[in-house]
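Exercise 7b. Backbone tokens:
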């Protein structure tokens, strides 16, 4: 996989903005400070995660529900630990 260009990173950052402050703080900060540390496989999971509905994301990140997809759940936990140590 080719390294991300600045344009690609900006697009990903924009897609991470959800319109809900709680999600914006988590996801945008993660793209800025943690996304590059993910494996290419995990980066693909993150891109897929962004296709999920906001209510689902909010419930997963608030830990009121668990994602059915184990890759999503692992990523949610990783992001929470990375952004909210």
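Sequence design result:
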């Amino acid at each position: 996989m080719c390294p991300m260009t600045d344009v690609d990173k900006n697009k990903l950052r924009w897609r991470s903005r959800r319109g809900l402050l709680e999600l914006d703080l988590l996801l945008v900060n993660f793209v800025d400070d943690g996304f590059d540390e993910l494996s290419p496989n995990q980066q693909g999971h993150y891109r897929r995660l962004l296709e999920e509905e906001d209510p689902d994301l909010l419930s997963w990140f608030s830990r009121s529900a668990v994602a059915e997809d184990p890759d999503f759940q692992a990523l949610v936990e990783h992001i929470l630990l990375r952004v909210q140590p």
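Instructor comment: Residues 59 and 65 are 5 Å apart (CA to CA). The two ends are 30 Å apart (CA to CA).
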